[in-house]
Amino acid sequence: MIKITLPDNSVREFESGASSLDVAKSISEGLARNVLAAEVNGEVWDATRPLTADSNVKLLTWNDTDGKSTFWHSSAHLMAEALEALYPGVKLGIGPSIENGFYYDVDFGDHEFSSEELANVEKKMKELAKQKNVYAREDISKADAVKYFEEKEDPYKLDLLEGLEDGQITFYKQGAFTDLCRGPHIPHTGFIKAIKLMSVAGAYWRGDEKNKMLTRIYGITFPKAKELTEYLERLEEAKKRDHRKVGQELDLFTFSQRVGQGLPLWLPKGTTLRERLENFLRKAQQKAGYQQVVTPHIGSKDLYVTSGHYAKYGEDSFQPIHTPHEGEEYLLKPMNCPHHCEIYRSRPRSYRDLPVRLAEFGTVYRYEQSGELHGLTRVRGFTQDDAHLFCRPDQVKEEFGKVIDLVLYVFKSLGFDDYLAQISLRDKEDRAKYIGKESDWDRAEKDIEEVAAEKGLKTVVEYGEAAFYGPKLDFMVRDALGRSWQLGTIQVDYQLPQRFELEYKDSDNSLKRPVMIHRAPFGSMERFIAILIEHTGGNFPLWLAPEQFTILPVSDKYNDYAYDVMSELEEAGFTGTVDARAEKIGRKIRDAEVQKTPYMLIVGEKEMDGNAVSVRKKGEGDVGTMSVSDFLALFKKETAV
RNA sequence: GCCUCAUUAGCUCAGCUGGUAGAGCAACUGAUUUGUAAUCAGUAGGUCACUGGUUCGACUCCGGUAUGAGGCUCCA
User: Fold this and answer.
1) Number of separate domains in chain A
2) A384 belongs to a structural domain
3) Residue A614: which residues within 8 A CB-CB, separation 6 or more?
4) Global pTM?
5) What's the pLDDT tens digit per position in A449-492?
6) If both were cysteines, with which of A218, A317, A553, A618 could A558 make a disulfide (CB 3.0 to 4.6 Å apart)?
7) Whole domain around residue A46: which residue ranges?
8) A246 CA to B20 C1', in Å?
9) Which nucleotide is nearest to A205 (CA to C1')?
10) Pick from A536, A558, A593: which residue ends a domain?
11) What Å value separates CA A220 and C1' B69?
C-alpha cells in the first residue's frame, strides 16, 4: 500500500500502481470526470500514470494553469493525428501549448497549406476526439526511437532526438498517432469538446531563420462549447479595442506612406491626450526632484562610439548622416542617455549635488525591421519618458526604491491595478554579450532584488533579459482584457558613467564615479498610449480625454449661449467644443457618443434662461440640469488625479 | 529581413468564371430650427496601391515593387 497526501494534507491509502485518476475517483466521480492531469511531488504527470510510492498529489483540472496547458498540448497531438490522416507523409516539428491554445509546426512538403483547409482539419479532429482515444505513455530506448523516425523519414523528430539522453525518452500514442513527447497528457481525446483552429503562419524550424520555414497552425480547444464561444467573444472585443482602429475612429494619430513606415503622425486630439499624460508625469517628477532637460535629435557618431552603442547596434541602425563639407558623421539618436551624460559632465559635481535627476521626453529613432512594425506599439520614431539618475553607490538602493514608488503611482493613477515586476538578469551561461565588470553586475543585480523585495513587489526573475549594460526591473501590467504588456522599466548602469568618465568630488576630496539609473515609467509615449487605448477601449478618464465636453445647442438660437458656456469652462482649464451644426439634438448626441466625449451639455431655452446646462454623461444618459458653476465644481472634482 | 494573406471613393465594404466600377456613411450645396443615440433632397468624389507582362480587351490572370495584416526572428 502507498500513502497519497492531498493538498489539504489529508492522507489516503491505495495499492501501489493506482493512478491519480483512482485517487480522484475515491473522492468523487464528478471530480474524476474533470481531472486532466496531476501534480505528483511537484511534477506534472498523466492522471493515468501509476503511482508506486508515497506521494503528494494535487489533481489538476481546467481551472489549473497546468491542467489547461496539458489539455492544449494533448489537443496539439490530436491535431497532428488529424493532419497525418488528411495529409499522409507530413513531417511534424514541435507542438506545444501556448498562453492561449497550442500550435504545431508542420512540413507539408510540396503542398501549400492554406487557411481554408483549417475547417477540414477541425472536422477531422472532432471526429477523432469523439473516439475517446486514450493517450498512452511508453518508455522507449533512444535507438528504437531513432529507428522509428528513420522509418517515418521525419528529420525534425530525429533532430530533436539528438538532444535527448537514452533512458529519458517517451512516446505517446493515441489512436493511430505516435509522437515523441515528454508528456504529460490528458486521459483521452474525449475531453476535447470544442475545437477552433485559428490561423496559419510561417515559423522557422527551431526559430532559426537559417532553417527551413515550416507551416505553423494555431488552434485552441475547450472542454465545453460555451467556453469557446466566450473566448471568441473576447477576441472580438480585443479587435474592437485595437488601438489602430480606435486611433483612427477618434482621430488620435495616423500614418502616411509618404512620411515613412513606423513614423506616427499625431493628430490634434491625440496630441492633447499625449500632452496631458506628459504633464501628469512632469508634475509627478518635479515633486520627486527631477529636473527637465532638452537635447537634440541627432548626436555625433563619436558620442555613440563612446557609449558602446555604435559597436553593438551601428549596423542595424539608421545609417549616419554626413555633413556636406566637413565629412562629419551624425546619428539620429537611438537613446537619450549619452546626451544626458554630457549634461552631467558640463560642470564639476560634488557629492552634495547627488543624486542629479535629469528628465526628458526625448524622441529617439531606431531602425526596426519592417516586419516588426505594428501600430504604435512598435515604431521607428518614438518618445521616451526618459530620465537618468546619477547617484553615489550608497544612494542606488534608495533612488531605485523611489523610482519604484513613482512607477506605481503612475500605474495607479491610470487604472492599471494588476501588475508584476520582472527582474531581468544576465544570461546564466552566455556572459559574452554583456559589457562591464563582473563585480558591478553582481552588486547591481543584488540591489535590484533587494529593493524589489523591500517594496513587496510581486516578482519573477528572468535570466538573459538584462540590457547589455546592466540588469533591469521591468513592469508587466495586465490590461482590462487580461493581456499582459511590458510597460515601465528601471535599469542600473555602472558602464556608461565609466565610458563617459563621469565623476564627482567626494567628501574626502577624492574623485569618485557615480552610478546611473535609467528609467521610463511609460516606456514610450506611443506604446503606452496604444496600451491605454486598448485598456480603456478609448473611454479615457475625464482628466485625459482630449475633448472633455461637447456643448450641444438645441437649435442655432442658442449657439451664442453655448459659446459663452464654453469660454467659461475653457477659462477654468477644460477643453471642449460647441456642436453648432444645423442638426437635430439626437444626431449631435449620437456623434458625441461615438466620439466617446465624456460629457455632453445640452442647452436650449430653459438652460439659457437659468444660466444652466443639461448634463448628459457618456454611456449613462441624462443626469439632469444644473447651473454652470455647479457643473464646473463637478468637473473639477472628477478631473482631480 | 523571412513566410502567408491582403490593398477598389476620406471611412466601411459589394463587384459571378477577363468586356475599363457600385452602396452606406463622411464631404459639399440647399431646405429644415430641431429637447437626449442617425432630418430630407441634390452634387461631387475612383489611372480599382504602383509597375511590367499575357490578351482584341485586365479591377479580375501572371511577375516585380510599395504599404498593410497575421506569424517567425529581432528589440539599446
Assistant:
1) 5
2) yes
3) A601, A602, A603, A604, A606, A607, A622, A624, A625
4) 0.88
5) 999 999 999 998 988 888 888 899 999 998 887 788 888 899 99
6) A553
7) 2-61
8) 36
9) B72
10) A536
11) 21
